[in-house]
Amino acid sequence: MDIPSTTLSNGISMPLLGLGVYAPRQNNEVQQAVEWALEAGCRLIDTAAAYGNEREVADAIRSSGIPRSDIFITTKVWNDDQGYNRTLRAFNRSLERLGIDAVDLYLIHWPIKEHRHDTWKALEKIYRDGRARAIGISNHYPAHIDELLTEAQILPAVNQIELSPYSFLPEVIDYCRQKNIQPEGYAPLVRGEKQNDPKLVALAEKYGKSTYQLLIRWSMQHGVVTIPKSVHRERIYENFDVLDFTISDEDMRHMNTFYDNTRIADDPRTLP
Questions:
Q1: Would you say the pTM of this structure is higher than 0.90?
Q2: Hey, what's the signal peptide range on this chain (predicted)?
């Protein structure tokens, strides 16, 4: 399977489809899930210090036999570790758990107002030192990014936000594009909350795909890096079987109207 990729602002390539491993209380299943995803052709694994499963991700990659250079690894600094020195220490701990010398992408997990600039300065140092191939942000909306850019010397390469048709804010995606920041979407499947939405079911039947496959394809067709989460083998394989169909422009426009602000994480607009 040849998963399409996107080129980040600093020239490095990032797969458009990967595996998210946010799986509280399922750490024993994470290693197996990553192994199945790699088997299915996945080459992007998105973890975070807060998920507590960086070691399991590392074990899965090692046991896969796939060269490290072929796998794009993302991790993130958690809120409690933000600030310049604390971020550098947290990053070192993540590298140790992952058993690698550098990550492909390091993100600020949430915008913490009092630490925003110091945390970003730490990421800039990590990037300049060659220990992250790219740096970026997560759960940042335009107001947070505008504030960050008042002091940033390096532009974030990626902004990872919750994204499905039900939380779709086109102005946020447009903003990222204007700033040359690659949008990345987590929770594209809305944790199954919308799998029986009649509007979605009707479209899925039209394309002969599951509602989950339709949601993943919708996100990818927006040019957004998409990281569905699952720890089930059949679902993981299904999630990566989305490259053999295209949603029509008309149906994309229809899905863009599904917004009802259904979210599984906090709404960044409520953050200071």
A1: yes
A2: none
Biggest CA-to-CA distance, the chain: 53
Are residues 81 and 87 in contact, defined by beta-carbon separation less than 8 angstroms? yes
Residue type, 17: L
Sign of the CA dihedral running 13, 15, 21, 22:
positive
Answer yes or no: 51 catalytic.
yes
The residue annotated as part of the active site, out of 51, 106, 166, 212, is 51
φ, ψ of residue 250 to 5 degrees: the values are: -65, -45
Question: pLDDT digits over 206-241, tens only?
Answer: 999 999 999 999 999 999 999 999 999 999 999 999
- Give per-residue pLDDT as tens, 167-181: 999 999 999 999 999
State yes or no: 109 annotated in a binding site.
Answer: yes
CATH class of the domain whose range is 16-189+224-229: alpha beta
Tokens of 90: 């947290």
CA 60 – CA 73 distance, rounded (Å): 12
